[in-house]
């Protein structure tokens, strides 16, 4: 099994590894014994009802423990992993019988009373794909419910959580779609439904979903979080296999209002998998695109900009205080809390370091973190502290930051707190050593150093 360093065993993490190995086996060597042991462990944790319930720390809010609703989401996720592993013979023959029995029990639990008994849209989406993969007849009834809740707009099709439910996760403050990106959970839900459509060979609906998902990607090819990116890429790849045209030739021409020469992209069988990029001049304010030929390709125009304030109500409170400030170093206190009721999932506190400064990891004080602190690691010009959760009650850490190089006139540097598995929930604050910000190079050097600087 795969576990946390505190010895919590994670059903979801183990299932995720099984799923990932199932997808990777076509491209690299995977030891079948490793997968078999993981599968054996996870099916031993199954309840007599067929459900799986997470005993460890919750990493994904839609699978938070306790209710039958949450058990159904987690059970569907594990069921998908077991089905995908079984379908490509990634478990040894010795355990295939017990795997089949476990799958049948999980299918019965997920399908029980569906769709009427399913509590929310996320559960409908993941249950639809899981039961479609299992070829269960109730998947059709679940799809009918999903169709009632679908949003269709301009040739696109997608699903989003109701505003009242979504606002508890990621409330918008000022801007709303389409001016800003959707939530990760919406991308994940819609991707599960696309996976189900792929199994039905329904490319008409698949292309409508693809158009919407394509607009939600960030310029680097991912989406919002790890979870939605993994599922979305799997769904889009599956659709791509079904709509692939063996012989195609396309020419895509782009021009801008102040960019008359433009750029022409040629896409064909030989370069279809090659990413083509062109930097548009900063003066361009509008771009026209014209495509001709035969085939299907995706063109994206990425625009980067800054805003003065965060677009959403903050998920965290965060303050920084510089203590014992001097030109030789200082002690930094960071206090923080979760603002949306209950507690967050796994959190990471990133503290960037001023130029010429180094954090003393032995000095880190985490006694005021409610037992949630797990570890600290050093990265390039920053340190990262990990927490099982960020509590609604204020938590504080302190660390000594000492000078290791002669640098004066320090500028403010940032501290960032975010949910590890929901990175859009983040807050950023800055801190600054006033002593070092106001110090001259001679004051930093001291009376007996930097003679060359003094002579200048």
UniProtKB/TrEMBL annotation:
Keyword Ribosomal protein recorded: no
Alpha-macroglobulin receptor-binding domain sequence ranges: 344-431
Keywords associated with the record: Signal, Thioester bond
Any one of the GO CC terms: extracellular space
InterPro entries found in the cross-reference section: A-macroglobulin_rcpt-bd (IPR009048), A-macroglobulin_rcpt-bd_sf (IPR036595), A2M/Complement_sys (IPR050473), Alpha-macroglobulin_TED (IPR011626), Terpenoid_cyclase/PrenylTrfase (IPR008930)
Protein known as: Alpha-macroglobulin receptor-binding domain-containing protein
Organism this protein belongs to: Mytilus galloprovincialis
Lineage: Eukaryota, Metazoa, Spiralia, Lophotrochozoa, Mollusca
